[in-house]
Amino acid sequence: MKRRQPPRLPEWLLSILCREELVEEIMGDMYEYYELLSHKPTWKRHLLYWFHSFQFLRPRMIKKLPIGQNSSFFGLFRANLRMAFRSYSKNKLVSGLSLATLVFGVVCFQLVYAWIRNEQSMDDFHSKGDRIHLVVGKLNPDTDWNAFDVQRMFNINYAEIAHVEKSMVVHSYRPDEIKLVNKGMDHRGKALIVDSTFFDFFDFELTRGDRDVLNDPQSIVITKAFANRVFGKEDPMGQVVDIKCDQTGTYKVAGLVEKIPSNSSISFDFLVPRQSSRFWRRMPQNIILSDAFFDQATFDDDMAVAKAESTRFPESVLSSFPLKSIYLDRSVEIPLFAKYGNRTNNQTMEGVALVLLLITLVSFVNLQTSLQLTLVRKIGVKYMIGASRFDVGLEIAVSRLIYLFAGGGLAFLLYQWLFPYYVGLLELDLDSTPSFDMVSMSTVMGGIVLVSWLVSFVQVYRLKTSQAIAGKLSLKIPRLQRILTTLQYAITILLLVATTVVFLQLGYMLNKDTGLHQHNIVQTDFFEMMPNQAQDSVAMERMMRQHDYVLNQLNNHPGIRTVSQGTIPIDMAFESSWKIASDGNEYTPVYTMPADPRYDDVFGMELVEGRFFSDTLDNNNDNKLVINEAAKAYWGIDDISQVKLTTNTRSSNQVDYTIIGVVKDYHYQHLSHKIRPLILSYSIYQDRDVLVRVEEGHMDEVVTFLGDLYREVNPGGIFTFETMEDKIDAQYASEKRLSSIYLTFSVVALVLSSIGLFTFAFHETRRRTKEVGIRKVSGAGFEHVFWLLNLSFLKSVAVAFVLASPVVWYLMTMWLDNFAYRVTLSWWIFAGVAVVVLVVAMATVLWQTVRLSRASPVESLRYE
Amino acid sequence: MSKEHLGELEELILLVILKLEKDAYGLAIRQEIIKQAQRSVTIGAVHGTVNRLEDKGLIESEYGGATEERGGRRKRILTVTAAGLKALERSKDVKMNLWQQIPVLVVNKS
After folding, report:
1. Domain residue ranges in chain B
2. Portion of chain B with pLDDT greater than 90, in percent
3. Which of A11, A129, A282, A413 has the smallest number of Cβ neighbours within 10 A?
4. What does the pLDDT look like over A596-644, one tens digit per residue?
């Protein structure tokens, strides 16, 4: 019988891992043992063979590491540790700076990365997230997609559509539209009126109650944060509350949602079962849950077939968007979502994170290699007395590992401490995830330390012992390092210029004359949503009485100049389709806003032609319009009395509207847009917000008066108001956030780059001590030496500036192109940044160079 | 007196080496332990203990001839040194001594 050979791999492993003098015996025994097992099945034989092979890997039997003779690994490790600490205390400055760079850089990176990760994981926690779709439609092909109640408008039964498993209808009520009443106190919060299948779609974590809780029409689910607000320390479960909006009802709290995670675009304070009332007035959205075979084109076709049965909107098109895509695409705005993302912003942040990482890496590596350069002789001596390359590599590794551990701990503490400030300062919605952040920071730090180890090791590996000891070796900073520092500065300059431009643009937008009066205007919500007259005529009547009383009171207050109803014209215009009545052209979407006869006075609008609405000549909902100059130009109207406009969005039968006036153009949108055509129509619901223009200097008095009046008509309610200035501030919040992010991180970049430059100065001044001594002996003065030293550093800053300028010029021109009204990129922005960077760079190297320039040659040349 | 005390496996292996006389090597020792003590130890454990005993000077070794059944490799034949014998004897004495001091009743009871 032929002998079977034992498996090769464990044999080979044993032969390379075990000590040479033992290998023969071990392998012989194993060979025999394998033979002994010949009666067992092959797999068992192999398993046993492997198992016994592993048992040989004991400290006594495996080969010693190549770390020289007579030395134990751990003894060496301890010795290295001691050496590393000695080296730290000898070079306190550079070691301290290295650690600071590492910790600071990695923490800043992690802060940005935490945000990016939050954005990227948006809505990922819904396990069925990829199968949830929002049904959208448009009434005619020209308009934007809109998420309306497709089910009701088109009489669609989703159960009949292929690949649709479940459907749900959601009404969203804003905090100003709904309130929860507990023991006579009003609490406003965002509410979702949902089908009982809500938790089949979304995985919000319920800490109390189960996922079927909404099956009971008298149960509501509430978030923990809102429960704390409403019930304080009492147990919210089982509490009975009233909910008031256009419907009223009494409910019991039966579920508690722990928290809306920061990576959820959907938010709510409480959930109300939809079946608890027959009718909810807010336009709902339809959400469907598809199966795995969902196909967009098929769905669109199926919907087209399904809607054909209802002939109400022949031109309409129906489709759906994956719910997850809406956050970033913003393809449609729905009240269900509390926030939207921004792709460009995310990319910018990713860029910032990358830059921070690179700058930290370069700084740390530079610092460490510079430090290593001062140790060249020591290493030469070590080689001479018999140290192997492995020994030296280990020594460097141990010294870097200390950075890793110390840095990891410090970074975690710093991160925990900075996180709340970061979130607060930049107004981010971000949860803290300490364990993940710690892992991520350690990984990044480990990577940086590893790279620095590799660079140093390669440096040391190439070292020739004789040269190192004889001092023949050039101790010049490697060229690569110089280039990297220059690049660092280039990036810093880039960031600084970008920051300046963003700031200038922001200031420009905040202060630009929009053509409207902006001061002393207050918007407040006095009235609850109008009740349904058919359902509740008593409530309707009470509301009308309230309305008249409030307006009367306001008009009689001496501090109030004008009272109007409507909204502050900031990003509140909605598109509807209009055309000139007489011609056969298609309808085109034009922005429309409601206004009442005193609206023009509140905002100081100027009329170019005709007149504004007036109480004596016009009635609410008359077919009369005021347009802006842009609209007049848009339709090419010469004489407004000759032209009538018509729309297909308001009612199915066509009505002609008369143009009674033209207002001077004013900005009613973000300044990134040019002024577009606008139509103002006199159609004001009584429940609209009240706008008040306050006389100069009466602001505080009027706000107090408004508050008192509010509480008089809404006992138990909470008075809130907004000023136009606040709204303008909010409008530019994203630019503001961008500018503060840029500012924060360009300062970080500047600091880190300065540390890099400082290292050079530090190293160069040490290296050139003798050179300077000789120069001085030969007659060079302080000034001469001082400039000689400084110029070599400033040169790299100058090169960085030349590199960065065209790039940042190009990038910022692109960014400014997003704005219809923008600041110009002038040379003095660049000049200013150049001065700042130069001053900081000078300040960093000054201490070193001055010291050297003033040093007496007697000291430096004493030992030659 | 020597401060070396024998571990349980050490003692067992020393005894097995004595018993096997001229044929004491790693695998044979393991097989003998399994046979005599119904105790399964890995070959690695035997080797580890043997190496330790050799360091202590309780056994010594020399290579035997290469054989076919070992794939042409030599055996390392182990013999117990005088120090090893002494250690074994001492260990035995301690135990015997102790056994003799235990009343018969206690042993029979259990």
Report:
1. 8-109
2. 7
3. A413
4. 888 888 888 888 888 888 888 888 778 888 888 888 888 888 888 888 8
Instruction: Determine how β-strand A521-524 pairs with β-strand A721-723.
Output: antiparallel
| CA distances (Å), origin A729, targets A339, A422, A571, A699, A724 | 17, 20, 12, 18, 9
Buried b (16+ CB within 10 A) or exposed e, A769-781: eeebbebbeeebe
Disruptive mutation site among A2, A8, A25, A33 for chain B (greatest number of B CBs within 10 Å): A25
Cβ separation of A28 and B74 shorter than 8 Å? Answer: yes
Round to the nearest angstrom and report the end-to-end CA distance of chain A. Answer: 83
What is the Cα–Cα distance from A282 to A821, expressed in whole angstroms?
37
Give me the number of domains chain A comprises. Answer: 4
**A748 domain-assigned:** yes
Q: Looking at the domain assignment, is residue A334 inside a domain?
A: no
Residues of A whose CB is below 8 A from B51? 22, 60-61
A654 within some domain: yes
CB contact under 8 A, B48 and A61: yes
- Please give the pLDDT value at position A531: 63
Task: Give phi and psi for A88, each to the nearest 5.
Answer: -65, -45
Q: How far is B86 from chain A (nearest CA, A)?
A: 25
pLDDT of A399-436, one tens digit each? 888 889 889 999 999 999 988 888 887 777 788 888 88
From B27's Cα to the closest Cα of chain A, the distance in A is 6
Nearest residue of A to residue B72, measured between CA atoms: A28
Residue A786 phi/psi, 5-degree rounding, is -55, -50
What rounded mean pLDDT belongs to chain A?
Answer: 82
The reply to whether A460 and A394 lie within a common domain is yes
Q: What is the structure's pLDDT at A1?
A: 43
Judge if A455 and A497 occupy the same domain.
yes
Q: Interface pTM (ipTM) of the complex?
A: 0.83
Report which of A624, A623, A618 is spatially closest to residue A662, judged by C-alpha positions. A624
State how far the Cα of A826 lies from the Cα of A831, in Å rounded to an integer. 9
Which parts of A192-322 fold into alpha helices (H)? Answer: 198-201, 224-231, 296-308
Measured CA to CA, the distance from residue A21 to residue A55 in angstroms comes to 17
Using a CB-CB cut-off of 8 Å, the residues of chain B touching A14 are none
Question: Do B26 and A29 make contact, defined as CB atoms within 8 angstroms?
Answer: yes
Last residue of a domain, one of A685, A706, A726: A726
Q: Considering only residues 739 to 798 of chain A, which have any Cβ-Cβ distance to chain B shorter than 8 Å? A: none
In degrees rounded to 5, what are phi and psi of residue A741? -65, -50
Residue A390 and residue A494 in one domain: yes
Is there a single domain that holds both residue A263 and residue A375?
no
Host domain of residue A670: 521-726
Which of A726, A761, A788 terminates a domain? The answer is A726
* Cβ contact A147:A285 at 8 Å: yes
CATH of domain B8-109: 1.10.10.10
Contact A31 B52 (CB under 8 A): no
Q: Please check whether residues A699 and A746 belong to one and the same domain.
A: no
DSSP collapsed to 3 states, A650-707: CCCCCCEEEEEEEECCCCCCCCCCCCCCEEEECCCCCCCCEEEEECCCCHHHHHHHHH
Mean pLDDT computed over A693-700:
85
Q: Within a domain: residue A78?
A: no
Instruction: Give the model's pLDDT for residue A776.
Output: 83
Instruction: Please report the pLDDT score of residue A106 as a whole number.
Output: 92
What pLDDT digit, counting tens, does each position of A235-269 carry? 888 888 888 877 788 898 888 888 888 888 888 99
Taking 70 as the threshold, does the pLDDT of residue A127 lie above it?
Answer: yes
Q: Which of residues 12-71 of B touch A (CB under 8 A)?
A: 25-27, 31, 42-45, 47-48, 51-52, 69-71
How much is the pLDDT for A533? 61
Spatial CA neighbour of A500 closest among A818, A831, A731: A831
Q: Report DSSP state, residue A786.
A: H
